[in-house]
Amino acid sequence: MKVTVLGASGRAGSEIVKELARRGHQVTGVARHPERVPAVPGVAAVAGDVNRPETLAEALKGADAAVSAVMFAASDPRLLIQAIKAAGVPRYLVVGGAGSLEAAPGLRVVDTPDFPEAYKAEALAGARFLEMLKGEPDLNWTFLSPSALFDGSGRTGAFRLGGDALLVDAQGRSAISFPDYAIAMVDEIETPKHERARFTVGY
């Protein structure tokens, strides 16, 4: 498949690029600093700015799917969605946040008393992005939320998938590594099971 990854130089984006390339897909990695996109076979790094949609058009043209791995608070979801629709990309997958997941029925993680203030603006922006996607009548989107701890630990290939509830293990820990998150994202690209839906991944 031809897959365009926006934000391809970030921690999540770079792992998604590498996982796609590992499976033989043709990847276009878009970043403001394309020299930071993983230099692996099958990956073309191009310059682009998610806040300037005109810089994305060429990279999105002809893509079978696009993955957005950009910070919510530093981008405009309306511009991203418009760029995807204008390019006619059939699937749009978003690296989501854990803040919009439910810690308990009706209680979002971002609304819990102990949620770190430093991450609140990003989490709320991610929640707004998800609501905007839900209101799109024609866009084929998928929003994959990580677990609470999203870190750089190893690639295991052993994880669980869930829906709107935060996944927690037997020790009360909610975590997923960037490489394992990337596996779940590329699995969804290859075999769609959560079209027009949000899901989550964790140990």
Descriptive overview:
The chain is α/β, with parallel strands linked by helices. Helices cover 27% and strands 24% of the residues. It is built from 5 helices and 12 strands. It has helices spanning 11-22, 57-60, 77-87, 120-134, 178-190, and strands at residues 2-6, 26-31, 43-47, 65-68, 92-95, 102-104, 107-108, 141-145, 149-151, 160-162, 175-177, 197-202. The strands form 3 sheets. Strands 3-2-1-4-5-8-12-10 form an 8-stranded mixed beta sheet, sandwiched between helices. Strands 6-7 form a two-stranded antiparallel sheet. It is globular. The mean pLDDT is 96.
Question: Brief description of this entry?
Answer:
With 203 residues, the chain is α/β, with parallel strands linked by helices.
Task: Using brief descriptors, characterize the structure shown.
203 residues, alpha/beta, eight-stranded mixed sheet, two-stranded antiparallel ribbon, 5 helices
Q: Give me the side-by-side strand order of the main sheet.
A: 3-2-1-4-5-8-12-10
What general form does the structure show?
Answer: globular
What's the N-to-C terminus distance?
28 Å
Taken in chain order, the helices and strands follow as EHEEHEHEEEHEEEEHE
The total beta strand count reads: 12
How would you state the average pLDDT, rounded?
96
User: Low-confidence segments, ≥5 residues, pLDDT <50?
Assistant: none
- Structure classification: alpha/beta
Largest sheet: 8 strands, mixed
Query: What percent of the residues sit in helical stretches (DSSP H or I)?
Result: 25-40%
Contiguous helical run count? 5
Question: Strand fraction band?
Answer: 15-25%
